[in-house]
Design goal:
The chain is an alpha/beta fold and about 475 residues long. It contains 13 helices and 22 strands. Strand 8 and strand 9 form a beta hairpin. The longest helix is centred in the first third of the chain and has 32 residues. It starts with a strand and ends with a strand. The structure holds zinc ion (ZN). Zinc ion binds next to loops.
Length: about 475
């Protein structure tokens, strides 16, 4: 067999997922993600390590930026093949790539002006990594596939996408290479979702696989139980309502916002919270929620039942989607308790900042965090208990209640990853642990090999392996 696998991203780090599979006549890239960890963002500027014109196709696991965010650059550099992914992934990726391109353009302009003012130059050129035009040019290359459908790529390579249960449309990809009557299968886990989560189906499990690439974002820990999410949410909404304040929820546009709506809908159906106004105040989250609405075939059984009974979490009474900035500003003038779900998830930008300005100094309001807050972000300062914070150029005392609900995660933890890998009869030739910080990936690799006796390795950036 002549199969070469190269690890071109998310190898001993989390972002920038990109793997190259080369057979004797076909070259495929699996994911083409943006590096988002500050330490590694300079790699975004490197010329593509693969000659884009020599690539036959890109297989895209899902629409998160760290998996699809370098596609416009790849197309700018000459890639003209197909980008295979599910229909939902292609619809969400379009929204996310155009937004990313706009941010890249704004960033470049901002830097250019600042450097001009300061009379100096930065380490990178003051041009966008890619433009809105580049993002638009990549859109016609998206070729939607269905879960379970076999795609033939070039000669002797077949790919099948399966539900990963991570975000809407997310996939695990099984690639089968055939040469001279021999076959090898390689599974790319993408991001592994979780069992028994709202809206989405459980991750697909595989058997009889020769090689596996498995993510390890949370490979070194076990998530808190999720049973308390509803109770905590109800308590926060009810007590804030009694105090007469608002509930501000900084949230990510994809999956987390829809999950919050799901939980609120359940609480309303069960009569655990009053019918207050709920605003989804993020154009990106609204557009992505539209994609959810268009793809009920991707829902799990509970969610499908809600839709059939016309009790969908995306259309409950008093839920208002605010597209325009004026509609968003009008929320501040409403008397009485409202819940506002707004981006960005870590308060680094977006409309949530305006709602924080209005609410952060009101003891009767609650700022509710439902996601990870990275070091250095405004969100992190608030959850860490800062007394005063700077928002949109002004300092505000933090007097609102600051609450956090843990347990929201769309990534499998260590035990769930083991569950995903543990199929009877499964004994792969080799497992590659990827998409995790070095320590997390190594710990998970050690744990897995101790438990199974399998050949497990943790490749680093640039590693090339021949698959026999
Ligand atoms: Zn992801």
């Amino acid at each position: 067999m002549q199969i070469k696998l190269s690890f071109l991203g998310a190898a001993q780090n989390v972002t920038g997922s990109r793997y190259l599979l080369e057979t004797n006549n076909t070259n495929i890239l699996i994911d083409c993600g943006l590096y988002q960890e500050r330490k590694f963002t300079s790699r975004n500027w490197d010329p593509s390590p693969v000659q884009p014109r020599n690539l036959d196709a890109v297989l895209l696991t899902h629409a998160h930026l760290d998996h699809c965010g370098l596609l416009p650059k790849l197309v700018h550099e000459g890639f003209r093949g197909k980008i295979y992914c599910t229909e939902a992934t292609s619809e969400i990726a379009k929204i996310i790539l155009l937004d990313s391109a706009r941010l890249q353009e704004e960033d470049a302009e901002f830097k250019r002006k600042r450097h001009e003012r300061e009379g100096r130059r930065g380490p990178f050129p003051e041009i966008p990594l890619y433009t809105v035009d580049d993002a638009n040019a990549s859109l016609p290359l998206f070729s939607p596939v269905k879960y379970g459908e076999a795609i033939q790529i070039g000669h002797g390579v077949k790919a099948i996408f399966r539900d990963a249960g991570h975000v809407l449309g997310s996939s695990m990809i099984r690639v089968e290479v055939s040469q001279d009557g021999e076959h090898r299968t390689i599974v790319f886990s993408g991001d592994v979702g979780r069992w028994d989560r709202p809206i989405l189906r459980d991750p697909t499990v595989f058997d009889e696989v020769d090689y596996i690439l498995v993510e390890s974002t949370y490979g070194d820990r076990v998530h808190e139980a999720v049973t308390d999410i509803s109770d905590n949410l109800a308590e926060i909404i009810n007590s804030t309502h009694q105090a007469g304040g608002n509930i501000i929820v900084p949230s990510f546009a994809l999956e987390r916002s829809q999950e919050i709506l799901y939980y609120m809908n359940q609480l309303l159906i069960e009569d655990h919270i009053p019918h207050l106004l709920v605003f989804l105040d993020s154009p990106m989250a609204i557009n992505i929620t539209e994609v959810f609405r268009r793809h009920p075939e991707l829902f799990d059984e509970d969610m499908s039942k809600l839709v059939r009974e016309k009790r969908s979490p995306f259309g409950f009474p008093n839920l208002i989607m605010t597209q325009t900035a004026d509609e968003s500003k009008a929320i501040n003038h409403i008397v009485g308790t409202v819940t506002v779900i707004a981006g960005s998830g870590m308060c680094t930008g977006g409309r949530v900042k305006h709602h924080l300005v209005t609410n952060i100094s009101r003891p009767e309001s609650t700022i509710l965090f439902v996601g990870y807050q990275a070091t250095g972000t405004l969100g992190r300062q608030i959850v860490d208990g800062a007394r005063k914070v700077r928002i949109l150029g002004q300092r505000y005392p933090v007097r609102a209640r600051v609450a956090q609900i843990h347990g929201f995660s769309s990534h499998a933890d260590r035990n769930e990853l083991i569950r995903w890998l543990s199929r009877p009869g499964m004994a792969p030739k080799r497992v590659f642990v990827v998409h995790g910080e070095r320590e997390s990936a190594r710990q998970f690799g050690k744990f897995l090999s101790n438990k199974t006796g399998w050949n497990v390795s943790v490749p680093e950036y640039g590693t090339e392996v021949l698959l026999e």
